[in-house]
């Protein structure tokens, strides 16, 4: 039985190696090369990595990507908790409908959502027009669009469903009796959340947070099209290096560095997850 | 269309097969199918119809999204099946240095006799007196502005000096042009623009960092910029020509400024990948001659609207049509700064990333 299983899995494994690992290997190899106009010099060197470590620009772009990831994880967590609670505890027979509804924005495509947000946030947009009409402001608020505020707001909107999914799983596994017991023993709501709900749903928070984080770090359209002049990301820098500058080696080295840091981050998160009961059951399917 | 082609090929094959031994049916022998890497707006079916009907050649198109993408594709080994490419004239260097293109035999393209002097005298696309990239069509990348929202025609200084338009300006997210414009603004002599030294690059960087505060955003697609003009988010931008035509047609009052510091001119070229030979090569030469000829030139001038690199169609156009594509007064070409390939382009890109990340 298990032998048959192995054979059946073989094509998938081969496909994964061919389409995922081999290109990554090529990328990794390129990161040790050098470029001279259009010629790739294949004598291995660590110069590209030295360049990244020595460059404030690339260091700060990578740092900024991780910071953005953390900010968006925090925003989606704050919004996601009540939403997930509502779906899990008040959803009733509508639960699956609510979860589907939550995913609807994802069906519309990146560009559509980005341009829709422009209509809402622009100087001539819905919010500014309304505020001007209501007499709240005389000049449009420029910072609503083409600013870090705009890009983080939309990133949070884009990836909120992934956080809610994680938290919803967390809530489903949370025994209400524990919450009730805490209340009966006189714990105020904040303490109930902090000492019972949060620790018990933490695996869901970490799982959702990991997904959101990785997607934010890798996103490039949203900051580029909504972030204004400061919307540059490490991904767009890699894109410039591969495309415009034909510096595939340096582009590869930055990509590999980013990947390694992300891998490290995920490893830590996965380790934390594996230390928790619900986490174990999420990962390995054991109860 | 493909259905038709298949049927025609099938018939050709059958006819050729049955008659092969007895009759040299040259006209019916399978004509080559050419694969052309090209911008979508240059290869509209109606533009190519006269050539296809005349030659019996078929053309498959592989549309490009950017020059860089075209080079990356060919460089990554995608050149084996491509018969004709359309690189920026300033980028032909890359293809030559990578050994991706072959020398063009001008004798096989009669219309090259009509190429404008500005291109004949330009070193772009050539090496050792041989031509590898043949100028195809050209235009300017101008400063476009909303006439209704600005008091006077701006020049490049509006992107570098504080004014009431600060926060309503846009610049393309592209190292080459961003640095060129800063250099023009800083009045660095034209012959030095593509050979900037460290001190000049530092000055450019300072200007571009100052510029960043004045911008609403950087734009990356022309559709995006058109949208920004239309909604009034942006009143002036370093632009391409299409938003000017498109928004004027929609009733907005758009202007093209003629900055005293100069305007960026560009040209795209036609180049033939190495390895194209025999019948296919002959067909490619015929196609190139058509693309530089009057039928195509007229359609491109009206439909594009863009000017081809030859004077083939010039006399067939009205004064307005000539003005639209900047060929009424040919001396205007002398004021353009043609996009070239900077010596230290990697430093330019690094600088541009530093500016954006600052």
Overview in brief:
Chain A: One of its GO terms (cellular component) is plasma membrane. The complex is a heterodimer of chains A (287) and B (358). Chain A is mostly helical and 287 residues long.
Keywords:
heterodimer; A: 287 residues; mainly alpha; MetI-like fold; two-stranded antiparallel ribbon; 13 helices; 2% strand; B: 358 residues; alpha/beta; D-Maltodextrin-Binding Protein, domain 2; 2 domains; five-stranded mixed β-sheet; four-stranded mixed β-sheet; 13 strands; globular; disordered N terminus; MetI-like_sf (chain A)
Order of helices and strands of chain B: HEHEHHHEEEEEHHEHEHEEHHEHEH
Shape of chain A: globular
Tally of helical runs of chain B: 13
CATH architecture of the largest domain in chain B: 3-Layer(aba) Sandwich
Q: Cα distance, first to last residue of chain A? A: 24 Å
**Number of structurally distinct domains of chain B:** 2
Helix content of chain B: 25-40%
Helix content of chain A: over 70%
Shape of chain B: globular
Largest beta-sheet characterization of chain B: 5 strands, mixed
Which CATH class of the largest domain in chain B? Alpha Beta
The level-1 CATH class of chain A: Mainly Alpha
Determine the CATH topology of the largest domain in chain B: D-Maltodextrin-Binding Protein, domain 2
Report the strand count of chain B.
Answer: 13
Tell me about the biggest sheet of chain A?
2 strands, antiparallel
Total number of strands of chain A: 2
Oligomer status: heterodimer
The CATH homologous superfamily of the largest domain in chain B is named Periplasmic binding protein-like II
């Amino acid at each position: 039985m298990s032998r048959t299983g192995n054979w059946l899995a073989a094509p998938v494994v081969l496909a994964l190696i061919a389409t995922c690992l081999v290109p990554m290997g090529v990328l990794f190899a390129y990161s040790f090369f050098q470029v001279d106009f259009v010629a790739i010099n294949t004598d291995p060197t660590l110069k590209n990595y030295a360049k990244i470590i020595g460059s404030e620009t690339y260091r700060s772009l990578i740092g900024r990507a991780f910071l953005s990831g953390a900010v968006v994880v925090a925003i989606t967590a704050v919004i996601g908790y009540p939403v997930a609670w509502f779906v899990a505890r008040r959803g009733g027979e509508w639960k699956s409908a609510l979860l589907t509804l939550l995913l609807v924005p994802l069906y519309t495509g990146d560009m559509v959502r980005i341009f829709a947000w422009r209509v809402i946030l622009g100087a001539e947009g819905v919010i500014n027009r309304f505020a001007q009409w209501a007499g709240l402001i005389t000049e449009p608020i420029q910072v609503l669009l083409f600013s870090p505020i705009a890009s983080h707001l939309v990133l949070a909107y884009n990836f909120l469903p992934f956080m809610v999914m994680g938290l919803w799983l967390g809530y489903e596994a949370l025994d209400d009796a524990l919450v009730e017991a805490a209340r009966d023993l006189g714990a105020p709501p904040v303490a109930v959340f902090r000492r019972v709900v949060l620790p018990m749903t933490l695996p869901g928070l970490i799982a959702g947070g990991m997904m959101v984080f990785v997607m934010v770090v890798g996103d490039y359209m949203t900051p580029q099209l909504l972030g204004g002049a400061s919307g540059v990301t490490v991904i767009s820098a890699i894109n410039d290096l591969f495309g415009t500058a034909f510096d595939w080696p340096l582009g590869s080295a930055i990509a590999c560095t980013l990947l390694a840091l992300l891998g490290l981050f995920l490893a830590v998160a996965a380790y934390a997850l594996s230390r928790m009961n619900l986490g174990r059951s999420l990962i390995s399917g054991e109860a | 269309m493909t259905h038709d082609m298949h049927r025609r090929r099938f018939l050709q094959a059958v006819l050729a097969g049955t008659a092969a031994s007895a009759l040299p049916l040259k006209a019916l022998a399978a004509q080559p199918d050419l694969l052309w890497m090209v911008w979508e707006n240059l290869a509209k079916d109606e533009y190519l119809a006269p050539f296809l009907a005349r030659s019996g050649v078929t053309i498959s198109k592989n549309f490009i999204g950017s020059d860089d993408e075209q080079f990356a594709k060919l460089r990554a080994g995608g050149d084996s099946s491509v018969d004709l490419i359309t690189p920026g004239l300033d980028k032909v260097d890359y293809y030559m240095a990578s050994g991706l293109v072959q020398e063009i035999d001008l004798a096989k393209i009669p219309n090259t006799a009509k190429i404008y002097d500005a291109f004949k005298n330009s070193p772009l696309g050539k090496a050792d007196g041989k031509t590898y990239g043949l100028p195809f069509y050209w235009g300017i990348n101008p400063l476009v502005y909303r006439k209704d929202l600005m008091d006077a025609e701006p020049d490049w200084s509006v992107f570098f000096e504080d004014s009431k338009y600060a926060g309503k300006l846009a610049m393309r997210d592209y190292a080459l042009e961003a640095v060129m414009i800063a250099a023009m603004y800083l009045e660095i002599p034209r012959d030095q623009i593509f050979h900037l030294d460290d001190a000049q690059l530092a000055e450019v960087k300072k200007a571009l960092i100052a510029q960043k505060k004045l911008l609403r955003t950087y734009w990356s697609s022309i559709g995006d910029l058109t949208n920004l003009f239309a909604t009034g988010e942006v009143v002036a931008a370093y632009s391409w020509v299409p938003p000017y035509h498109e928004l004027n047609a929609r009733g907005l009052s758009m202007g093209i400024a003629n900055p005293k510091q100069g305007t960026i001119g560009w040209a795209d070229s036609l180049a033939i990948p190495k390895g194209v030979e025999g019948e296919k090569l002959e067909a490619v030469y015929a196609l190139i001659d058509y693309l530089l000829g009057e039928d195509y030139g007229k359609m491109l001038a009206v439909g594009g609207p863009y000017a081809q690199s030859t004077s083939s169609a010039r006399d067939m156009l009205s004064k307005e049509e000539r003005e639209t594509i900047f060929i009424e007064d040919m001396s205007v070409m002398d004021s353009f700064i043609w996009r070239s390939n900077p010596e230290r382009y990697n430093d330019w890109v690094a600088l541009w990333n530093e500016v954006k990340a600052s």
